[in-house]
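Hi L.,

You mentioned the student needs an example of a multi-chain input paired with its predicted structure. This one should do, with 341 residues in total across all chains.
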Amino acid sequence: MVFIGRVFCGIHKPHQYMQTHKGWRMRGNPGKHKAWSRRRILRLSSHFYGRRNNCYSIAIKQVYRSLNKSRIGRKFRYPFLTRLWEQRLDAACEELGYSWPGMRVHLREAGVALSKSVLQNLAIYEPRTFRSLVSLAKSLDPDPGMNSLQGPPPSIITKGMI
Amino acid sequence: MSSARRVQQWVTFGRMWYLFDAKWQNPFDASTKIVKVLSGSHKPIYHNDIDCGDHVVVINSAQIALPGDEWERRVFYHHTGYAQGASWTLAHQVHEKDKTMVFRRAIYHALDTSLLRHARMCRLHIYPDEEVPEEILRNVSAQLRQMRAVPKRLDHYTEDEVKNFPKLFEWPKDYVLET
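Structure written out for the whole complex:
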């Protein structure tokens, strides 16, 4: 299809058109405009600072750079989060007089299939639920020592007994 | 009760003030305990980028105890920034100059090298003796247990306590004790 009027006005040039078995059509892909592909890139750079936010030729370099960095960061994401969850669970268990390694072993024994991520969320947002889980793990601990729920075992002589 | 209010915790982000008596304590051992409180890693909300640490008030920093001959051996490095500006000072000389410096440097080195390091150091209040300003002391609501028991010297006992101390036997009067 040729828009003759546009060709006469010089908007569309005849050499941009080619003849096919279906008739005339534009060379290349007429549906794809440069502005749209640029817009896709500029959406990724919208949160950058300065001219790298809006100027395409600067933004494209920064977008490739940031995408590359996020690819590298994906590798370190879960090791970091696992370490963070363990630190939080250590802290939460020590507040309640127990240890995270002990809790981990005895929760598995009790058949409580909660992940570290869920447990640390409970420790932060539902501390009473977490306390009950710690009590469950403690009650399964064969040698809870002085921190047991029922007090120290009878073989231990404490200051108050003498 | 709505589910939002059920999990509401008022003092989650409150800052506690802990007291630590540094009398006869090794500052390098004590730093492991104090750093944990200053950086907030004793709380379940801990994250290395958020500033959730508590305050620690350290008293009696003049009476710290360094192990072995560390007073003579440990050196503190300082550089003025100018050429040939490096200096190394022995621990006992630093302690003579400032009774809080050895303790403060021990904590500073034990803290993570992050952007929050100076904010965490600001929450450490060190006093050489038991005289703490009233506006600091009235915030204190908890105590950090000492890492080791403070020994009592023989000259700290009264004469009666020494005389009445239970003995298994008496030395014969003509027995010559090796000195």
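You could point out the following to them. Chain A has a mean pLDDT of 86. Residues 34-75 of chain A form one domain.

Best wishes,
N.
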